[in-house]
Amino acid sequence: MNQLVRNFKKYRYLLGELVRKNIKLRYRRSYLGILWTLIEPLLTMIVLTIVFEEMLGRTGNDPNIPFPVYVLTGRLLYSAFSGSTNAAMRSIRSNSGMIKKVYVPKYMYPLSGIISNFVIFLISLIVLVAVIFFFVFMGSYKAPVTWELLLILLPLLNLFLLSVGVGLILSTLCVFFRDIEYLWSVILMLVMYCSAIFYYASEIDNKTTLMLLKANPVFGVIDNFRRCLFGQGVDYKLMLFSFGISFVVLLIGLLIFYRKQDDFILNI
Amino acid sequence: MAGKQIAVNVDQVGMKFNLGTQKVDNMKEYMIKLIKKELMYQEFWALKDISFQVNRGDRIGILGLNGAGKSTLLKIIAGVLKASEGNIQVNGKIAPLLELGAGFDPQYTGAENIYLYGAVLGYSKEFINEKYKSIVKFSELEKFINVPIKNYSSGMRARLGFSIATVVEPEILILDEVLSVGDAKFRRKCERRIKGMFDKGITVLFVSHSTEQVLNICNKAILLESGKLIAQGEAQKIVDLYERKLEEN
């Protein structure tokens, strides 16, 4: 344990460098650069609003919450999850050249992929704030400022733990079975549709579908994030559940990653 | 007390590779083979039962034919590979000059790569800041330091890698083959830097096919043959044995 901490301290700077590299290289050679982290969610928000509000006539049960804000929160959190797990999944393979040649604690690779996606996610929260201000300014939204806004950190922490857990599992499996990449993209689609990103969970009256939704920890995260933001009161039971799942997943992830990490080099 | 004197302790180390007859890396094949019980691997011991000690200040040459396990042994000592059995103990800061520039990112400029590769080698930010100028100066790449590395020639890349890796003062130096870095002028410069380290009494592990170089650098040597340690001792004695073996073949 002591050794682990000392080793982490030694390579702490490397973690920072890898995160910086991921972010820098992502936007290098694009004219708008880091601005894309802001433009992209904004554009998707507009598309989703046009499709679901204008074309399919969705308004929701709470007329005080503008649909674009609702969609944007779900979209941002979901893409933080999908982006970071995808990055972690590919991290071992894409760094195979380095793994074969120099010693670096192996968890640095998935962890740096996840952290860089979260940094980008945190930057893109600026868009959310801007959109909220826009609607407040237009007078169609009254942003509730309550102490519960502070609790917004809990779903974010939850999402991070979940992403690390899932990321460790995926990165290990992906070394041995490439199929995981394709399988995961399908599972991610299921997660997306079961996260109530562009519809309202309260509209669902089918019990089994609702169960599926609640079993999805990403839904729990998104739902509680919105509850904090819209001042609707945290659903503690749901929060406890999604935290619980995240811890279990994290534990499994750590376990299989540590048991298998010495075999990575023989398989990549 | 004795522990202080030993720089590297290799204790009954073995390295096993599973040579699958074909590589199974997708689930369908894995499942089919699992059910048909065809998941057989051919075991291959690249190293078996290797034990030796390197004292502080020793310069040890590792001799052996191709496939004898020399590089595997160095990789295990450097921590890249984990031995299947046995123990390795390393006391002191290691500088592995195995693959210079592993960890360079081609999109990054030379300057950015100095920080990245330094971090890969476990340096701190302060340390790199402090040594940055001397790294650039030694590599003689001042003019190109802000150019992406993908536009470097292989010689330039190796020069930068060497400059970063040797900026530390290691206690144990691992050298694989010798430095065929850059042109003759730069090679001489590298050799001078390494000789300078020798004079400070560091421990060296050196792999080479050239017995001349081994005699030049090392005071002791070990000889590997198909994964087994067959002799260790004074460099001259082992080199003679190695040459006799070569003639036998």
Protein described:
The complex is a heterodimer of chains A (268) and B (249). With 268 residues, chain A is an all-alpha fold. Helices cover 75% and strands 0% of the residues of chain A. In chain A, helix 3 crosses helix 9. Chain A is globular and about 60 Å long. The mean pLDDT of chain A is 91. By secondary structure, chain B is of the alpha/beta class. Helices cover 39% and strands 28% of the residues of chain B. In chain B, the strands form two sheets. In chain B, strands 5-6-7-3-8-9 form a six-stranded mixed sheet, sandwiched between helices. In chain B, strands 2-1-4 form a three-stranded antiparallel sheet. In chain B, helix 4 crosses helix 5, helix 4 crosses helix 6 and helix 5 crosses helix 6. Chains A and B meet through helix 1, helix 4 and helix 11 of A and helix 2 and helix 4 of B.
The CATH top-level class label of the largest domain in chain B: Alpha Beta
> What is the helical fraction of chain A, as a range of percent?
over 70%
Q: What's the multimeric state? A: heterodimer
How far is it from the N-terminal to the C-terminal residue of chain B, by CA?
44 Å
Order of helices and strands of chain A: HHHHHHHHHHH
Element order, helices and strands of chain B? Answer: HEHEEHEEHHHEHEHEEH
Secondary-structure-based class of chain B equals alpha/beta
Mean pLDDT score of chain A, rounded? Answer: 91
| Uncertain regions spanning at least 5 consecutive residues of chain B | none
> Strand portion of chain A, in percent?
under 5%
CATH homologous superfamily of the largest domain in chain B, by name? P-loop containing nucleotide triphosphate hydrolases
Q: What is CATH's topology name of the largest domain in chain B?
A: Rossmann fold
Low-confidence stretches of chain A: none
How many separate helices of chain B?
A: 9
Counting structural domains of chain B, the number is: 2
Q: Note the gap between the termini of chain A.
A: 28 Å
- Mean pLDDT score of chain B: 84
Biggest chain contact: A-B, 27 and 30 residues
Radius of gyration of chain B: 21 Å
Strand order of the largest sheet of chain B: 5-6-7-3-8-9
Helical segment tally of chain A?
11
